Amino acid sequence: MKTANASALATDPTVRGYTGADAWSLTGVIARLRRVLRSSLRQEFPWESLPMAQVEVMQRLAEEPGMGVSALADRQRLATNTVSNLVQQMVTAGLVERTPRPGDRRAANLSLTQSGTEILAAWQAANDRRLGQALERLPESYRNAIENAVPALAALAALLEADDETQNRDQARQNGTRP
User: Fold this and answer.
1) 174 and 145 within one domain
2) For residue 112, which of 96, 89, 90 has the smallest C-alpha distance?
3) What is the full DSSP assignment across 133-171?
4) Is 63 left (phi over 0), alpha (psi -120 to 50) or beta?
């Protein structure tokens, strides 16, 4: 595989605009990366067979099995009815199962089925392959910079999530509602 030349990348107009850590550049490059990764996996996983919203729900349930629809909606930062519809589609497709919550028959715990676990693993493997192939073609200095940026980006995401949760809690208190 051919490795990209760092100076050639620096003059590429699609790369040149992302020179700093300002919010617009960071948001733009993250959005662009997500779009291109999603679209590049569609030969193996067509949109209609595994929508990205379902992938994200499956990823969350793999990390935090047993949560209910409301907690899942909060964690995904989506409306409860949106998550409820997604979960119903995934239950129908055999990707997610609902089990009654002990002590509360109205509530259910959600978890991936064996099929859901296998499909998510296949999706993640395809994503890893695609990203790995692209990373191999970057200059070593760029690969190192990306590797070193991951912990900082994870910390930034956690900070923004905490800020969002605090803001929601404060707003709920002002409105006299639950967050």
Assistant:
1) yes
2) 96
3) HHHHHS-HHHHHHHHHHHHHHHHHHHHHHHHHHHHHHHH
4) alpha
Question: Tokens representing 12?
Answer: 């590429």
Interval 63-119: pLDDT, tens: 999 999 999 999 898 999 999 999 999 999 999 999 998 888 888 999 999 999 999
Radius of gyration of the chain (CA): 20
68, 101 in Cβ contact below 8 A?
A: yes
Please check whether residues 91 and 157 belong to one and the same domain: no
40 Cβ contact list (under 8 Å, min separation 6):
130
Residue 165 sits in which domain range? 139-179
Residue 60 sits in the same domain as residue 116: yes
Q: What is the pLDDT of residues 25-62, one digit of tens each?
A: 888 888 998 888 888 887 777 656 788 899 999 999 99
Residue the block writes with tokens 């192939």: 133
- How far apart are the C-alpha atoms of 174 and 85, rounded to whole Å? 30
- DSSP lists the bridge partners of residue 98 as 110
